[in-house]
Write a structure and sequence with these properties.
Helix content is about 20%, strand content about 20%. The protein is α/β, with parallel strands linked by helices and about 300 residues long.
Amino acid sequence: MAIRRRRVRRALAVACLILQTTSGVAWAATTAPAGPPLLVGAGGIASCNTPGDEATAALIGRIPGARVFTAGDNAYERGTAAQFAQCYGKSWGKFKGRTRPAPGNHDYGTAGAGPYYDYFGAAAGTKGQGWYSYDVGAWHIVVLNSNCQGNSRCAKGSPQERWLRADLAASRARCTAAVIHHPRFSSDNIEGNRPFVAPLWDALYAAGADLVISGHARVYERFRPQTPAGVADPRYGLPLINVGTGGRGHAGFKGPVTNSVVRDRTSWGVLKLTLHPDRYDFAFVPVAGAKFRDAGSGTCHGKPPVR
């Protein structure tokens, strides 16, 4: 019994250490219990005019020790310094020290997304770029900047696309996930599919990435594994979960696009990922009073064969 207690204390002590990311930024200390690491988050988050972000922040507060991601559109409506301080800062800002963000188009509502980079600092990657990577347990996480309309940021051969391919090639992790604001595919009734992110999906697919998380569409939608061209591929395809449910509001759906399997436009909530060394479990955690649920798992698979 004494040996078991010492092992538990040792595991808790390790979990409390500040962990370094591959971008050189330290996580805030946590008190997570021993077990697989947790990653939790959403996109479409904070507005001073709605209570949703406070409700989803409360969910994160009840998941102790989880690392937090954002999938963009952190501060509405225009990502100003005041909106980051007064809207995001008073809800999800409580977890800033354990958050790794992705930029959204509303964050770019202020020129160059300056307040976004100033608020998150080094945790957001190089100012003006917005792409970077980090490790959580046995997983490698890449964060991408999909604010590419009107520029070549997502294009094949762009600095971001070349960085992504090099970063994925250098990683020795068995499992890889990507966080990118704009979903490649979507059934939402505002914009639908976003083909301009396809070159980044091409790089992820070629490297054998295992999961893509987006948050631009203010809905929850999960897709079966598919290629960047939208062809179902249960062996090597990229599962996409769009979780734009952080609290800003809800969009609607048109008819479901190919490979869409689960959709909801009624519930705020967060995506909780349990990152095992060779697989992951996912669960949509809704705010109090919401009825929608979704959960499942996936397995890490490696690179597809070269054709």
